[in-house]
Amino acid sequence: MTSKSPTPVILDVDTGVDDALAIALACRLAELEVIGVTTVAGNVDQQRATENTRRVLHLLDAGDVPVAPGMTGPLIRPHRDALAYHGPNGLGGLELPPSPGRMVGAHAPEFIIQAAQEHEGELVLICLAPLSNLAVALLLEPELPRLLKRVVIMGGAFTVAGNITPWAEFNIFVDPEAAAIVARSQLPLTFIGLDVTTRVRFTREQWERCRGLDHPEARLITGVSVWAFEHRQVDAYALHDPLAVAVAAVPDLVGVEPAEVVIDTGLWSTAGQTKMVRSGGQASEHLVALEVDVERFVALFAGALRLPIV
Ligand code: RIB
Ligand code: CA
Q1: Tally of helices (H runs) and strands (E runs) in the chain
Q2: Residue 60: which of 101, 111, 31, 120 has the closest Cα?
Q3: Residue 22 falls within a domain, yes or no?
Q4: 246 Cα–ligand 2 center, Å
C-alpha cells in the first residue's frame, strides 16, 4: 500500500511557548513536511520570535529548515506582546543554544508567495500568530487563494470568551486589520479558535511525568513549561498552536461549520472580536472548528513527541 507523501507546510509563528511545541509537533508528524517557518511580532517581538524559532529548530535537529523573518508589528496598531504569559524570553525561561543555521534572505510575505508558487495547489499554511504576514502576502499576490491548498489559523473566539479581552483572542486582537483582510479573502481558511483550543491542555501532573526524560522533545516541553508551573503557578495551560498543527495533519480531529467570519476592527473595547455569520455561501465562506476529539489529539501529540502523558 503506497503511503501518502507528506503535505508541504509553512508555519507562521510568534515563538512563544505553545508555538515552540507546535514547531516540534510539525517536525515530528509524518503527515507534514515543514518547508519553512516565517516569524512575526506577537507573543514577543519579531527578532525574539525569529531567534527562538531558530533555536527550537536546532534543538530538534531541524536547523536546516529555512526561517524567514516577517512583520515587526501590526499593520496599523501598536504591537502588544504576551511576555507576562510566555516569560521574559518567550520560551518560558528555557535557555537554548543558538542555531548555527543560515537565515533566508526573503521577507516572510515574499517567502510565503514564492513557496505557494513552487508548490502550487499543495502548500498548507499554518498560522499560529497575528496575521500580519499573511495579510501583506495577500496584498502583494492576489492570486494566493488559488495557489494555497489550505490555511489553518489558530485564532478567534466564536462561541466563548476571549483570552486577552473578554471579546478577543490574542492573535486576532494584536492585528485585527490583518485578520479582516484575511477573513474577507477567498483563501480556504479553517479557524481553530479558543472554542476548541482551550479544551486541549498540558497539566502539571503530565509535566511531572516528563521531567527527567532526556530526549529533545521532553527537554523542550519541560523547559518551556517552567514559567507556567513555577512562576504563574497554574495547574494547566492550553496547547493552542499544537492543535492547529494537528488539524493540518488530521483534519477530522475537529468538527467544523461553514460560515463567513467577521472581525471587529473598531477602536472600542470589542476590537478583535470574531463572529460567525451563516451566509449560505454568499460571502467568503470559511470553516470554523467548534468540536474537538481531545483524546485523539492527546494520543497524536504524545506519540509524535514521545511523551508519557496519555
Ligand atoms: O491565543 C493564543 C494564541 O496567541 C497562540 O498562538 C499563542 O502562541 C499566542 O500567539
Ligand atoms: Ca502563537
Answers
A1: 14, 11
A2: 101
A3: yes
A4: 14
Residue 293 domain boundaries: 7-305
Split into its structural domains, the chain has a count of 1
CATH number at residue 94: 3.90.245.10
Residue 41 neighbours by CB under 8 Å, 6+ apart? 14, 49, 71, 72, 73, 74, 79, 81, 130, 132, 174
**Is 228 part of any domain?**
yes
For 242-284, the pLDDT digits (tens) are: 999 999 999 999 999 999 999 999 998 999 999 999 876 666 7
* CA 282 / ligand 2 centre spacing (Å): 31
Q: Is the CB of 154 under 6 A from ligand 1?
A: yes
Closest atom of ligand 1 to 42 CA is 10
- Give CA–CA dist 63/34, Å, rounded: 11
By annotation, the residues acting in catalysis are 240
Q: Is the CA virtual torsion 290, 249, 272, 263 positive or negative?
A: negative
DSSP secondary structure string for all residues of 162-186:
-SSSSSB-HHHHH-HHHHHHHHTS-
Q: Quick one: average pLDDT of 62-90?
A: 96
Judge whether 40 lies within some domain.
Answer: yes
310 occurs within a structural domain: no
* Ligand 1 atom at minimum distance from 86 CA: 8
**Residues 6 or more apart whose Cβ sits within 8 Å of residue 137:** 108, 109, 110, 112, 113, 144
Ligand nearest to the CA of 163: 1
Cα(241) to centroid of ligand 1, in Å?
7
Is 0.85 surpassed by the pTM of this model? yes
When the pLDDT of each residue in the chain is averaged and rounded to a whole number, the result is 96
Positions of E strands within the chain: 7-13, 32-39, 67-69, 124-127, 150-154, 189-192, 201-203, 236-238, 254-263, 274-277, 285-292
Count, residues in the chain? 310
